[in-house]
Design brief:
This protein has 164 residues and is of the alpha+beta class. It has 5 helices and 10 strands; from the N terminus they run αβαβββαβαβββαββ. A 5-stranded mixed beta sheet has the order 5-2-3-6-9. The protein has a 3-stranded antiparallel beta sheet with strand order 1-8-7. A two-stranded antiparallel sheet has the order 4-10.
């Protein structure tokens, strides 16, 4: 049974932008594999559900955090992310750092409405769908929107950064 979505910065951004989106809520229960839980709860193909991951980049000046958005059915290719953003190396950000930077908890990090705006790369596979799902800013809350709107609102680069 769906509850009314509580406001999150991600939902606020979508509403303010006036883009078409739908909210999908489910009871969050698992502690890991948040993407698998989303796919099972919503019955959506895993290739259309995208996870938001923060990575730490080095070798292109000051170390920086960046966002990679890839299907839950695959993994973030850290070398491809680093290359796309002109960095020497990328590694997964420490979860506590990711939470502080984004303002969201792990498993509920949205590419939209993050506390600190970061350079964002969305896997090119997203563009092959009419809509994709990303976290709405908390565990058990997904938003479905057109990939072009996601790219525009996050000012993202589109690149092949996912791998199976």
């Amino acid at each position: 049974m769906a509850k009314k979505a509580a406001g999150t910065p991600a939902l606020d951004i979508l509403t303010a932008a006036g883009v078409a989106f739908s909210v999908h809520e489910y009871d969050h229960e698992v502690r890991h594999h948040f993407g698998d839980e989303t796919v099972a709860a919503l019955g959506v193909p895993a290739v259309r559900v995208f996870k938001t991951l923060l990575a730490s980049l080095t070798g292109a000046g000051q170390p920086e955090l960046a966002v990679g958005v890839v299907p839950v059915s695959g993994q973030l290719d850290l070398k491809a992310l680093a290359s796309t953003l002109g960095a020497k190396k990328a590694e997964m950000a420490d979860p506590a750092v990711a939470q502080r930077s984004s303002g969201y908890v792990v498993g509920g990090i949205s590419p939209l409405g993050q506390r600190t705006r970061l350079r964002t790369v969305i896997d090119a596979s997203a563009m092959s769908f009419g809509t994709v799902l990303v976290s709405g800013g908390r565990r058990g809350l997904q938003v479905e929107l057109a990939p072009a709107d996601l790219v525009r609102l996050t000012e993202a680069i589109i690149a092949e950064i996912g791998r199976l």
